[in-house]
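> Could you send the UDP-3-O-(3-hydroxymyristoyl)glucosamine N-acyltransferase prediction when you get a chance?

Sure thing. Input:
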Amino acid sequence: MKFKKAQTLEEIATLIAADYVGDSNFAITGINEIHVVEPGDIVFVDHPKYYDKALNSAATTILINKEVACPEGKSLLISDDPFRDFNKITKHFNPFISSKDSIAESAVIGEGTVIQPNVFIGNNAVIGKNCLIHPNVTIYDNTIIGDNVVIHANTVLGADAFYYKNRPEGFDQLISGGRVVLEDKVHLGASCTIDRGVTGDTTIGEGTKIDNQVHVGHDTVIGKKCLIASQTGIAGCVVIEDEVTLWGQVGTNSGITIGKGAVILGQTGVTKSVAGGKTYFGTPISESRDKLKELAHLKRLMKEEKKA
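Output:
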């Protein structure tokens, strides 16, 4: 998530009441999670296991719960609770704005686009040309939709990420400040849910077609010309490259990559990253021909046991 204008280290430190290490005028241009950070970003870390990863990332300001040696060319924000203070920054620069109308005045809707009854379109949403948005679709704030997109009834774009910190008093939500981006010619079936990024974008690439009742988690990037069948559940921070096919009831772990042109057969659990250009099946996942050989071998063993 980028700020509308650059902030100084001292300004952010004052906002969250934190100490800092570095030049008070050190420039900060946004906040992001570790997997999408860029120079100018703040990243937060609150566990020693991940200190090195955060300190050596592309982020140039690290919001951390211990004063450590500051890498050259970077700055530190020292907080007793980085998770809490990351939320403070998100709320300050991307506050929730309640809606008074079904279609926000700040929404932009392209020529030739048809909006059916009972659609909600939030603040600063942008919808391209010649789209068809069916009844009861909900499009949250800041969603970006390209041209020639079709979205069927009851689909929700931009709900919060499923991201919580377990505290003694209960689960504390990491506030979502990202967006959903649909590129041109995307089709979404009925009752799909596409969660927005925590700080970045959940993106569905040009020409991808998604069936009914599919869930796409936060910050996931789906490539071009993919086919995703019904009741598939895609976790957060997944990368699905171009021309991938996921058949019905596939489920994935978070943070994995599915390579270009891969085919994942129905009810497969994608528990790890897989290479493109192959067909996969089963849980744990393996190439379908190998899995079918295993099943055939087990069947033969069972027959031999019965004969014995």
